[in-house]
C-alpha cells in the first residue's frame, strides 16, 4: 500500500512516519518543500520517498500525485501555529484551504481513489460555553482565530468534496497533542525548554508564561498518530471524528509537573502579555466516544511520561 504524508517534516508527520515504519507492506511517500527543515526526518530520510511540493502550487501537487498515485493520504501540511495566524491570516488561509483544495482537485482530475485523512483541530470549536462540555462532534463551530477558521474551511471543503464527488475523506478534529519534537512555541515545549535552560545555568530562574488557568485536553503525539491511522482503517468516508484524551489539565499543572521532573526549584513565574491570546477559551475538554466506539483507540502513554520525554528531548539539544 502506498501511503502519502503531506507535512512529513513537521511534528506530527515525522511521528506518523515513525509509526508507519513499524508496519509491513507500507510504502511511504512524503511531500516537503525545498527549504523545509529536515531535522525531524533525518533518522528515516533514506527509508521513504520524498517529493518536493508546495501545496499552494496546484501544478506541483498534481505532478506529485500523478507520480505517486497514493492509496492513502494523511494531509498534515499546514500553517499550524495559531498566533502566526493572527500575524499572517492571509497566508494561513491560503496554505490551509487552497493547499487542501489542490490535493482534492488533483485526486479528482487524475482519477485516483485514495482514502484521505484531513487533520482538523479543536480550534474549530473555538468559543465553547461551559454548559456545552465535554465537546463532541455535534458542538457548534465558533472559531476564534484565522487558524481556526482555516481548519473549519478545510473540514467543510472535505465534506463538500465527499458529497459532490465521492472523494473518500475522513475528517479528524484533534485536541492538543504534544511530545518530543514539538517546537518551543507550543506550551509544553516552551516550558520544558525554559526549564532545561535553567538546569544548564543558561537562564535565570524566571519562567515566562501565558494564561496558566486554561484547561486543555492533551494527548501524546505518538498516541495521536495511531488514532490517525485507525481513522482511515475504520472511519466512514465523509464522517468526522474528534480525537482526545478526555482529561483536562490546567496549564499550571503542566508547569508544576515539569518543574517536579526537573533538577531546578524555586522558579519564579511571570505572566507575559505577549504570550496571551486576544481571545482565550477557559476550558477545552472533549469526549471522543464516537471514535473510541468505532476503533477501540485509547491513549496509552501517561501524560507524565510525555512531559518527561519532552524534557529529555530538550536536554539532548541544550
Ligand atoms: O513549512 P515546512 O516547509 O517546514 O513544512 C511544513 C508543512 N507545510 C507545507 N508543505 C508544503 N507546502 C506548504 N505550503 C506548506 N506549509 C507548511 O506542513 C511542515 O512539514 C508541516 C507542518 O508541520 P508542523 O508545523 O510541525 O505542524 P504539526 O504540528 O505537525 O501539525 C500537523 C497537522 C496540521 O494540519 C495542523 O494544523 C494539525 O495537524 O493540527
Structural write-up:
- The model has no long low-confidence stretch (mean pLDDT 95).
- β5 (115-121), α5 (146-165) and β6 form a beta-alpha-beta unit.
- This protein folds into two domains: 2-177 and 219-243, 3-Layer(aba) Sandwich (Rossmann fold), CATH 3.40.50; 179-216 and 247-284 and 300-315, Alpha-Beta Complex (UDP-galactose 4-epimerase, domain 1), CATH 3.90.25.10.
- The protein is built from ten helices and 14 strands.
- The protein is globular, with a radius of gyration of 19 Å.
- With 318 residues, it is α/β, with parallel strands linked by helices.
- The strands form four sheets. It has a seven-stranded parallel beta sheet, sandwiched between helices. The chain has a three-stranded mixed beta sheet with strand order 12-9-14.
- The chain has helices at 11-20, 58-68, 82-87, 89-110, 146-165, 187-199, 221-234, 251-260, 289-295, 303-315, and strands spanning 2-6, 27-32, 49-52, 72-75, 115-121, 168-174, 177-178, 206-209, 215-217, 219-220, 240-243, 248-250, 268-271, 283-284.
- α2 (58-68) packs across α4 and α6 (187-199) packs across α10 (303-315).
- It is 40% helix and 18% strand.
- The structure holds ligand A2R.
- The site of ligand A2R has 23 residues, from α1, α4 and β5.
- Hetero ligands: ligand A2R
Largest beta sheet, briefly? 7 strands, parallel
CATH homology-level superfamily of the largest domain = NAD(P)-binding Rossmann-like Domain
H/E series: EHEEHEHHEHEEHEEEHEEHEEHH
- Distance N terminus to C terminus? 39 Å
CATH topology of the largest domain: Rossmann fold
Output the number of helix runs. 10
Radius of gyration (Å) = 19 Å
CATH architecture of the largest domain: 3-Layer(aba) Sandwich
Strand content: 15-25%
How many domains, in number, for the residues?
A: 2
The SS-based structural class is: alpha/beta
Tally of strands: 14
The low-confidence parts are none
Strand order of the largest sheet: 3-2-1-4-5-6-11
CATH class of the largest domain: Alpha Beta
Shape descriptor reads globular
Amino acid at each position: 500500500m502506498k501511503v502519502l504524508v503531506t507535512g512529513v517534516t513537521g511534528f506530527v508527520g515525522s511521528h506518523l512516519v515513525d509509526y508507519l515504519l513499524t508496519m509491513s507492506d507500507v510504502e511511504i511517500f512524503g511531500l516537503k518543500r525545498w527549504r523545509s527543515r529536515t531535522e525531524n526526518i533525518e533518522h528515516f530520510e533514506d527509508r521513504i520517498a520524498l517529493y518536493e511540493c508546495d501545496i499552494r502550487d496546484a501544478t506541483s501537487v498534481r505532478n506529485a500525485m500523478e507520480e505517486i498515485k497514493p492509496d492513502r493520504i494523511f494531509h498534515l501540511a499546514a500553517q499550524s501555529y495559531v498566533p502566526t495566524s493572527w500575524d499572517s491570516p492571509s497566508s494561513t488561509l491560503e496554505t490551509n484551504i487552497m493547499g487542501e483544495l489542490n490535493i482534492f482537485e488533483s485526486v479528482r482530475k487524475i482519477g485516483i481513489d485514495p482514502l484521505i485523512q484531513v487533520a482538523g483541530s479543536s480550534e474549530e470549536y473555538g468559543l465553547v460555553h461551559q454548559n456545552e462540555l465535554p465537546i463532541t462532534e455535534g458542538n457548534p463551530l465558533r472559531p476564534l482565530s484565522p487558524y481556526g477558521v482555516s481548519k473549519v474551511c478545510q473540514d467543510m471543503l472535505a465534506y463538500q468534496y465527499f458529497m459532490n464527488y465521492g472523494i473518500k475523506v475522513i475528517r479528524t478534529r484533534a485536541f492538543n497533542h504534544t511530545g518530543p519534537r514539538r517546537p518551543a512555541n507550543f506550551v509544553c515545549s516552551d516550558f520544558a525548554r525554559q526549564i532545561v535552560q535553567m538546569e544548564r545555568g543558561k537562564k535565570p530562574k524566571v519562567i515566562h508564561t501565558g494564561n496558566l488557568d486554561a484547561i486543555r485536553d492533551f494527548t501524546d503525539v505518538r498516541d495521536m498518530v495511531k488514532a490517525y491511522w485507525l481513522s482511515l482503517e475504520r472511519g466512514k468516508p465523509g464522517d468526522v471524528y474528534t480525537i482526545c484524551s478526555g482529561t483536562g489539565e490546567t496549564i499550571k499543572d503542566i508547569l508544576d509537573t515539569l518543574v517536579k521532573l526537573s533538577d531546578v526549584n524555586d522558579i519564579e513565574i511571570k505572566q507575559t502579555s505577549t504570550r496571551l491570546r486576544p481571545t482565550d477559551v477557559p476550558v477545552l475538554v472533549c469526549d471522543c466516544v464516537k471514535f473510541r466506539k468505532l476503533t477501540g483507540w485509547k491513549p496509552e502513554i501517561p501524560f507524565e511520561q510525555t512531559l518527561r520525554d519532552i524534557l529529555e528531548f530538550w536536554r539532548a539539544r541544550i
